[in-house]
From TrEMBL:
SUPFAM superfamilies on file: Class I glutamine amidotransferase-like (SSF52317)
Reported function: Catalyzes the hydrolysis of glutamine to glutamate and ammonia as part of the biosynthesis of pyridoxal 5'-phosphate. The resulting ammonia molecule is channeled to the active site of PdxS.
InterPro entries assigned: Class_I_gatase-like (IPR029062), PdxT/SNO (IPR002161), PdxT/SNO_CS (IPR021196)
Family: Belongs to the glutaminase PdxT/SNO family.
Active-site residues per Swiss-Prot or TrEMBL entry: 79, 184, 186
CDD domains: GATase1_PB
E.C. number: 4.3.3.6, 3.5.1.2
Native source species: Terrabacter aeriphilus
Protein name as it appears in the record: Pyridoxal 5'-phosphate synthase subunit PdxT
Length: 218
């Protein structure tokens, strides 16, 4: 079975662990460099990206995380986690670093300060629409959320806000093994977003064991 870590320096760690367990994955909090090495996939939860960035550096997690992302580790970032995975922050503060990996520019607290949070229904580009789309749109909860202001050519857009002042804004993306949403799927009972990520992790694990069993010959 796969082991999925949840970066546990700050933010809503517990809810993600529970969601992963409900899908049959082994789920473990990740706080130490050695724990980064031991997971098949990683969730970076919502929270506060400036704090998360500082703690990731203080706990010496930044370098092992950046390395594993570059090696193809599947990572799912929600909200602050999306910011951590973004290559660029619009109007970013010079002292805030991200791990990067996703060729996107995010805007923090993009939906406005007067409305701290809102909820809406989203159409989502499921990888297996026959299995997941019939359950209807995603009820998405946004809490001081970022949006994706710009996405590079290799980034797949999975969801956009459907209506209202933010209509058309990109709020879910995937690039290779990296997936990110502006919203918080861990707060409701719908586990389809986590299921999407768990299937990316399982797929990647299978590919890796296949590669180990038949090493390339020169
Ligand atoms: N506004 C937060 C940040 O910039 C993200 C909020 C969240 O994760 N719920 O990091």
């Amino acid at each position: 079975e796969i082991t999925v870590g949840v970066l546990a320096v700050q933010g809503d760690v517990r809810e993600h662990l529970a969601a992963l367990v409900s899908l049959g994955a082994e789920a473990v909090p990740v706080r130490r460099p050695a724990e980064v090495a031991a997971v098949d996939g990683l969730v970076i939860p919502g929270g506060e990206s400036t704090v998360m960035d500082k703690l990731v550096r203080a706990f010496e997690l930044r370098e092992p995380l950046v390395r594993r992302i570059a090696e193809g580790l599947p990572v799912y970032g929600s909200c602050a986690g999306m910011i951590m995975l973004a290559d660029r922050i619009a109007d970013g503060r010079p002292d805030q670093q991200t791990l990067g990996g996703l060729d996107i520019t995010v805007r923090r607290n993009a939906f406005g300060r007067q409305v701290d949070s809102f909820e809406t229904e989203l159409d989502y580009a499921w990888s297996d629409p026959e299995a997941l789309a019939p359950a209807g749109p995603v009820h998405a909860v946004f809490i001081r959320a970022p949006w994706v202001e710009q996405a590079g050519p290799d980034v797949e857009v999975l969801a956009r806000v459907g209506h209202g002042p933010a209509a058309g804004r990109i709020v879910a993306v995937r690039q290779g093994n990296l997936m990110a949403t502006s919203f918080h799927p861990e707060v409701g009972a719908d586990r389809r977003i986590h299921a999407e990520f768990v299937s990316i992790v399982r797929e990647h694990r299978l590919q890796q064991s296949a590669a180990r069993q038949s090493p390339e010959r020169e």
